[in-house]
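RETRY 2/3 - previous attempt timed out on the joint model. Re-submitting the same 268-residue input unchanged.
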Amino acid sequence: MPTRAAAEVRQDAARAYDAYLASCPARQLLDRISDKWVTLIVSALADGPQRYSDLARRIAGVSQKMLTQTLRLLERDGLLTRQVTAAVPVRVDYELTPLGVSLLPLIACIKDWAETHMDEVAAARDVYDTVAAQ
Amino acid sequence: MPTRAAAEVRQDAARAYDAYLASCPARQLLDRISDKWVTLIVSALADGPQRYSDLARRIAGVSQKMLTQTLRLLERDGLLTRQVTAAVPVRVDYELTPLGVSLLPLIACIKDWAETHMDEVAAARDVYDTVAAQ
DNA sequence: CAGTATCCCTCATGATACTG
DNA sequence: CAGTATCATGAGGGATACTG
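RETRY 2/3 succeeded.
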């Protein structure tokens, strides 16, 4: 069964490549910052500490689940700290760590490229779509 | 029905925010480069033009579907060109455009941050997981 | 060689309801 | 206020088979 064997070889290669990518730092970072809410939360915290409800308000459209989940993720990664103040009602503040702050220039780079070049991309899309329509 | 109305208001806000994000250049760029295969293909083409089969070989683990789909996406965005040479068998070469090349420094920035700081992130995770386990 | 077409399936996200 | 728990869905991605 050469076909079956070839398929297996391909799948093995795919799995090995997946494993390789999983260990790639740049890939791990991209996995983080590509998350819809990660950059929004980090950017929101650039101005200083924020409470949970502040974040929920600033980042309209985020569900409680995703906000909590993403905050936990970022806390685990050492990008922000979670400070609970025992009171009634409870108060929880989130703040960027120096590591989290160090991410801001990178986000700024991405923003720069986007603001400089995304209109070219949009133009290219228009051309592509126009030609394809004919 | 105040509950229902409140839920609707929240959903409207979420939709409006989605629309806002869809028009955000930085978000659009992140949507592109966060794609697993986009950065790999762009990086592979940094060395110069490559044929379809070259790319398939270099980027082990990519399916034909995703390779073709991603190449079309990048062509549409004006990041690379597709050059078909009529012959038997057909030959297709892909090459970065200047716009595509301009993306390379940004990818390098991301790589730099990752290689500089991802070990700190990994360390933070270890601490977090260790504390959580107790 | 360089694709296209199809099916299938998982996994991430969001809505909803409940709580210390 | 700041979450947790549960359920549903839908879109992205892979496997497979076929083609100019």
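Residues 7, 10-11, 14, 51-53, 56, 64-65, 67-68, 84, 87-92 of chain A lie near DNA strand D (CB under 10 Å from a C1'). Closing ticket.
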